Amino acid sequence: MNASERERKAEQVDKLLTAEKFVLAKLGRGELGRREAGKIASRINTAVVSSVREALEDRGLAEKLLETFEEAIEKRSTATPQVASTLSKVLAMRHGMEFNGHRPSEEDLEANLAALWAGLDLNNIEEKYAELKENSRGKKVEGKEREEEGNEMYA
User: Fold this and answer.
1) Considering only Cβ atoms within 10 Å of each terminal Cβ, which end of the chain, N or C, has fewer?
2) How far is CA 8 from CA 30, 72, 153, in A?
3) Is 33 helix (H, G, I), strand (E, B) or coil?
4) HSE-CB for 108 with a 13 A CA cutoff
């Protein structure tokens, strides 16, 4: 891949990160439904990960994407800075480069995973999730009933 192709790919990723934030903003304002926003965000993420996959084999592209991710995180132009950071660390580890002023290592990754597993309780997670969903449904019904009580249209 030549330099102009790498630059174009990095610009596409930058636009995709901004588009994801835009989609989530439209979701928050009620202009997009959850399902539609989820589909668009999923496609955006697939395209970003596809570019990262290419960069695993192309150091020049990895350098461009690391710059793009760092700028997106600094400018807050990504809705998912943690994901951008993780993808950057993977690229930096693969090519022996720095990200955020240091060179990520396997030990960093292992420490992050250990902290994740220590903080997660996956025992009975399916039951906990079902209970949470049931409680959420009840709150939605209560809110709708309160709304109908004060609305003359339902009287």
Assistant:
1) C
2) 33, 16, 55
3) coil
4) 11
Domain boundaries, the chain: 3-105, 121-155
Q: What is the DSSP letter of 98?
A: -
C-alpha radius of gyration, the chain, whole number: 21
Cβ 91 vs Cβ 65: under 8 Å:
yes
Contact predicate 62/55, CB 8 Å = yes
> In 29-80, which residue ranges form alpha helices assigned H by DSSP?
34-55, 59-75
What's residue 121's pLDDT? 85
Query: The tokens of 95 are what?
Result: 């090519």
Cα–Cα distance, 92 to 77 (Å, whole number): 21
Coil, helix or strand at residue 51: helix
Q: How far apart are CA 47 and CA 86, in angstroms?
A: 16
Residue 78 in 3-state DSSP? Answer: coil
Q: Flag whether pLDDT at 137 surpasses 80.
A: no
136: burial class by Cβ within 10 Å (0-12, 13-18, 19+)?
A: exposed
Residue 1 is predicted with a pLDDT of 87
A 10 A CB-CB count for 97 gives 15
Spatial separation of the C-alpha atoms in residues 123 and 67, rounded to whole Å: 40
